[in-house]
């Protein structure tokens, strides 16, 4: 996957900061986005991801740092002269124009020849499967169709980068899932770099090739989805991406080099791969935990005993909340792989929760 | 489809007797005087009390009355010019207040509403004093003899336009303007292609409001008009001081027809742009 991505950088953000009053919206952010990538910016609301997108589009100007798009410094370049186009959260379809005039607007402004405008508009509408809707009025379209119009209107410009601001948040769950897949296909078809902003981490995981996690204006980690999920570099990322169980502890170097001994209240003393000293957090994903009714542990496993408090059924899988003494209950996930198997556990059951030591994450930040 | 005997629904206000009575009496009080005025303009009698028969001679008389026609022409010219200028100014002020953030914006918004809030008589006296103080030339050839009145009308019409347009812009989705910019439009192209179409009903409403306000303004005009710049309301006032003649009725009827026609046109224009903030 990584080898397919061209090393050609299309967007380069260098130490960009932006303040709104006293609020530091974007705090010294640097990153590079590669040509042809599907890149996602995720984070909780107010983390600065939308501001960063607006800085790229040219709707805000950075207080410090600079942005390069296709190697060109964008300082002082207004939004209408930037080689990027945006898909707005509200779609921002011009309500007094029909589908065709909406889509061809940018080309008309650019004074392209009439034949070219016609051909490209038709092509863009075909791309988003809206052929035949040319003369439709925006208020005759459904939410999903309006979004397609907005998408066509941006793609027709053949931008270097398409910026997508929470594009799917207004759609219902089923349509959102379909659109996620479609956008990924579309991105592959057109080969344009997509930069999507979303607060929905699962959306980012399923769509993007690389993800930047933002928190309080700064970037915490940039990695492909799998790495972000399985090897988060800090407590925030671990907690924000997916579900996770966290255990506070203190670490000191073990006798063997490259290993640490971590003492936690609930798990006792564990010896793990890594390098840390002082206060640390141990983390384990719910699906890594194996639930069993038999007591006793296995070799190389971390074991805990607890009582099942609640079971949340999701169809394909169920989430268990297990009381393991003080503090937060332990989250575990079981797959409902057997139709007639019936529930393997019930609330009130005493169970053993075990996971392999290698599945334990050691977080120092 | 409603059948007789259908129970009165909670929202069927028009089917409840007390409400019907209120509605009918309101309509009578509002429109009967106007209908009387129109009817008696066709009355074949010098007096406006008893019906004597149908005639159009007072229309002929009114049209033949050169002073009345001059006043009418003055009023229309003043209304036209002040509407034109106050709509442009109002659009600019409305856009400015919506588009930009700047120091003293709240103060400016408050100041804008002043001519609306200030009692008209004060405005009139102020205008008179101002015009006299700066020595605004009085005996200029037409249409410059109307410039003092026109300026005064612009001063009280343009805040209405500004406020109506500013209110209209509240429902504008800013992302539409950003989308246009994003697609390559300049600030002006964005205004022309995206902002103005949304503003249009506000501009039409503001212009219409300004036109009617200017056309029938008496108080402020009375204080700023000179002997050779009489407007229609001022002229009617001076005529009525002697007696209410059917000519006045006839002239007023023409004015009513004119305003109704203008309103109808404005409504038609507005209906063509049923824009929601999609």
Number of strands of chain B: 0
The largest sheet of chain A, given as strand count, sense and whether it forms a barrel, is: 6 strands, mixed
Beginning-to-end CA distance, first to last residue of chain B? 33 Å
The whole-number mean of residue pLDDT values of chain B reads 85
**What is the count of DSSP helices of chain A, taking H or I runs of 4+ residues?**
8
Number of strands of chain A: 20
Largest interface: A-B, 30 and 22 residues
Q: Supply the CATH architecture of the largest domain in chain B.
A: Orthogonal Bundle
Provide the descriptors you would attach to this structure in a database record:
heterodimer, A: 365 residues, alpha+beta, Rossmann fold, OB fold (Dihydrolipoamide Acetyltransferase, E2P), 3 domains, 6-stranded mixed β-sheet, 5-stranded antiparallel β-sheet, 8 helices, 36% strand, globular, disordered N terminus, B: 278 residues, mainly alpha, MetI-like fold
